[in-house]
Specification:
The protein is mainly α. The protein has a single domain, classed as Rossmann fold. It has five helices and three strands, in the order H-H-E-H-E-H-E-H. A three-stranded parallel beta sheet has the order 1-3-2, with helices on both faces. Helix 2 crosses helix 3.
């Protein structure tokens, strides 16, 4: 847990002594392959998420995936856009960035889109179902 807290750069963390096991909260920490297998490790991590996103579409559980670098975040975002095609948007006929069911959130992203993503995540039933983020998102919530 200390490694996770350090990676996300949390400060002044509060320990929750009650059981945090809730049906709407899930934490999974996956180990990556060594860098010699760069794209294989990326594909291995995202393949399960991509399959679930394709199957469940707008009913996919709202999920935030944190990344420690922009290279991997960008790779995943482009892969998802390519693999999902028109299903990357809701409605499928749209091509507006605001209608994507997945989003990227990092320090270089536009303030307008960051605001849009945060406001979506605060909704009861957001259109954005998957957010690929760096620690910048934690600072915005």
């Amino acid at each position: 847990m200390k490694n996770f807290i350090a990676t996300l750069q949390f400060k002044n963390c509060m320990k929750v002594l009650a059981n945090p096991d809730r049906p709407n909260i899930y934490l999974e920490n996956k180990e990556r392959l060594p860098n010699i297998h760069k794209f294989e490790k990326y594909d291995l991590i995202i393949s399960e998420v991509l399959a679930q996103l394709k199957d469940n579409y707008i009913d996919f559980q709202v999920t935030i995936m944190y990344f420690d670098n922009l290279e991997s975040l960008g790779y995943y975002f482009q892969l998802l856009c390519h693999e999902l095609g028109s299903r990357a948007f809701f409605p499928k006929s749209s091509t507006l960035p605001e209608d994507r069911i997945m989003a990227q959130f990092h320090k270089d992203y536009t303030e307008r889109m960051k605001t849009h993503i945060i406001s979506e995540l605060r909704k009861q039933n957001p259109k954005v179902r998957l957010v690929l983020a760096t620690v910048t998102l934690r600072m915005g919530l």
